[in-house]
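Readers of this paper often ask what the protein records in our data store actually look like. An entry from our holdings is shown next, in its original layout:
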Amino acid sequence: MSTIFEPRLLTAEEYGRLADDGRVTELVRGMIVELNRPFTSHGYLVYRVAMLLGQFVDQHRLGRIVTGDAGVVTQRDPDTVRGPDVAYYSYQRIPPGPLPDEYWPASPELVVEVRSKNDRWKDVLQKVAEYLSANVLTVAVIDPVPKRVHLYAADNEATIVNSTDLLTFPDVLPGFEVVVDRLFE
């Protein structure tokens, strides 16, 4: 008689306490999934977005910009922890003051993902759906090759903002605007 062992699923808290082994990973339905390390252009685009959003958020004292694939719990039981490229939390969701060394219980209002050339749209849209289901208000997916941004919100149809158009987040960051091409300078 043979015994089949089911893999043990990790919780978000167990995943967060694992030693850093240098791999880029996310927790998906309790299982660790390894991701490709992005190219230099991806990192630069993440920096540009974070810098432009950060300047606006800091100037108006609205909240915090988070980068570095800081974990966002998008699902529980089994747990999923995604690492968005850029996220914005208002002070209503994360009050001013010291941050705890754990995943924040509230989701960000805005998540920005930069699509790498090997990312399949099917997988990108799965992440978008997870973020929206976890109470993220707006998800922006930057597609570098055609230089455009796909915007998703739970109660609206997806919209596409092209390179010469203004990128805005009126429901999340009223007053913020930037021409999409500026992200790629």
